[in-house]
Design goal:
Blueprint (H helix, E strand, L loop, with lengths): L2 E7 L6 H14 L4 E4 L2 E3 L3 E3 L5 E3 H10 L10 E5 L4 E6 L2 E7 H7 L4 H12 L4 E5 L17 H7 L3 E6 L5 H10 L3 H4 L2 E9 L3 H15 L3 E6 L24 E6 L4 E2 L5 H4 L4 E6 L2 H4 L4 E4 L1 E2 L2 H11 L1 H10 L4 E4 L1 H5 L3 E4 L7 E4 L7 E16 L14 E12 L5 E4 L2 E4 L8 H14 L12 H19 L2 H10 L4
Parallel strand pairs: 1-9, 1-10, 2-9, 3-6, 10-11, 11-12, 13-15, 13-16, 16-18, 18-24, 19-21
Antiparallel strand pairs: 4-5, 6-7, 7-8, 14-17, 19-20, 21-22, 23-24
Helix pairs in contact: 1-2, 1-15, 6-8
């Protein structure tokens, strides 16, 4: 059976996901069979495995770091928020239904058998499991029903590393306060603390580290510097949404919908020379981009209302009327049609008109489409005619059924597809960029296809190198091997 180590944090965005990914990479480099695990994830960035099951993208990123195929067992429970008060509940890759936060809280301990079946199955096939917690283990109003922090650590008998984010300030108070709010048996499971996102001279921090150890009676196993790496983010916390990109020859605007999902679809476009990609949530920020992209969303009709109320719909229609290109992905694709209907109340209920830029309608079904697909782009016209015949690979995740034929459809310079991962193909991304350059009379000959897979591997290796240099890996291996008292 696999040995386990768990990474918990004093808060959301403390860096747990990246520490888990880095440890997975280190253990892989050291010759172990290692996998990530997170019992419950709340995210709108999801992924479809090769067997058609849905899981959170954070564990996909960590699986890539571990050098293994993403497996739904790594994330047995996925919550996809549909509103501020409720989520779609996905268990072992299958939709169980929509629940309010209160109803889910009452029922979640009933999912422990599903969690442990997935965990034990992974443990029987691997040497090490690196478990990620969620939020903070010191949420005293949630601790009795916990299945993702100390509750999971106890079930897996996993020693815990507690990570604090010094960049936001108050890291010593956060670490000491978290330990103070833990029960005695929970404190005994914490075997090390980690200071994350440090900028400056570590020697100045040393006195504080010793005082912290005296306060919490747990060793500090490392101070990780603020790392400028490009890895997939948790969707609600990414800085991509607020990043101010430098101006470039070609300007692409992705509409930042309130319930935007799978924004990682567009990361490959950021890596192209001469291309700036921005996330835009208001009319005042839209400007006059060369391409507007409508991304996926967990609530298509609700986010279409946002477009109307914010004035962005009118600006998108004006953009398209000038013959400027628009691309819709998944929910954004559905918005571009003539109408949307939700007779079963799957997302929003009722019926509403779409943007009317593509000649089809969408009806939301009770069953979700989840599939991986490969093929060739059908013949399309307009500015992006050059993608015709190129090979695509990706996955579909959607509730709606759209009466349109072909994986990619277009009407003039408006395009739509259900395919997530469409831009991961170097040839497609390059062809889209070349078309945008040509439309502005610019030389596109210097655009190079970008190898996203090789780039990710380089980033994971850099992450592992940084953690090896800043963590006491000998101590971490000791913690892993000693485990906790049963």
């Amino acid at each position: 059976m696999a040995k386990a180590i768990m990474v918990q944090g004093t808060t959301s965005n403390a860096g747990k996901s990246f520490v888990v990914a880095g440890l997975c990479r280190i253990f892989k480099q050291d010759g172990y069979r290692v996998v990530p695990f997170k019992s419950q994830n709340m995210a709108l960035n999801s992924f479809i495995t090769r067997d058609g099951l849905e899981m959170g993208r954070a564990q996909v990123m960590q699986a890539e770091a571990a050098g293994v195929e993403p497996d739904v067992r790594m994330n047995p429970i996925l919550l996809k928020p549909t509103s501020d008060m409720g989520s779609q509940v996905i268990v072992n890759g299958e939709v169980r239904g929509n629940l309010s936060a209160r109803d889910y809280y009452k029922q979640k301990t009933a999912l422990i058998p599903d969690i442990m079946k997935a965990y034990d199955s992974l443990a029987s096939e691997n040497d090490i499991i690196v478990i990620e917690g969620a939020g903070s283990p010191a949420e005293i109003n949630l601790k009795q029903q916990d299945i993702v922090n100390m509750g999971m650590a106890k079930m897996a008998k996993a020693p815990v590393l507690l990570v604090g984010d010094i960049d936001r300030g108050g890291v010593f108070a956060a670490l000491a306060g978290t330990m103070m709010l833990l029960e005695d048996d929970e404190k005994a499971m914490v075997k090390g603390t980690v200071i994350n996102k440090f900028r400056g001279d570590v020697s100045i921090l040393e006195p504080g580290l010793r005082m912290l150890e005296d306060l919490v009676h747990v060793p500090t196993v490392g101070v990780v510097p603020y790392l400028y790496l490009d890895l997939d983010d948790e969707d609600s916390l990414t800085d991509r949404f607020t990043r101010k990109n430098q101006k470039a020859a070609v300007d692409i605007a992705v509409i930042r919908l309130p319930r935007i999902s799978n924004f990682t679809d567009f990361n490959p476009l950021e890596y192209l020379d001469g291309v700036s990609l921005r996330y835009v949530g208001s009319v005042s920020d839209l400007g006059d981009p060369d391409l507007i992209i409508l991304p996926g969303t967990k609530n298509t009709m609700g986010d279409l209302e946002f477009l109307r109320q914010s004035g962005l719909e009118a600006r998108i229609l004006q953009h398209a009327a000038k013959g400027r290109p628009v691309i819709g992905i998944c929910g954004g694709y559905q918005m571009l049609g003539l109408s949307l209907s939700d007779p079963h109340g799957v997302e929003h209920g009722g019926q509403m008109a779409g943007l009317g830029l593509l000649p089809f309608s969408t009806v939301f079904a009770e069953n979700k489409t989840r599939t991986r697909v490969t093929g060739q782009v059908p013949e399309v016209g307009g500015i992006f005619a050059g993608i015709s015949g190129l090979t695509y690979e990706g996955y579909e995740i959607h509730m709606g059924v759209t009466d349109a034929e072909g994986m990619v459809v277009n009407h003039g310079n408006v395009y739509g597809t259900y395919l997530h991962g469409f831009f991961d193909r170097e040839e497609i991304t390059k062809a889209v960029a070349e078309a945008l350059f040509a439309a502005k009379g610019l030389d596109a000959s210097e655009i190079r296809a970008f190898d996203i897979a090789a780039y990710k591997e380089e980033q994971y290796d850099k992450l592992a190198d940084a953690l090896r240099a800043s963590l006491d890996m000998e101590k971490i291996y000791q913690i892993l091997n000693e485990g906790v008292q049963a």
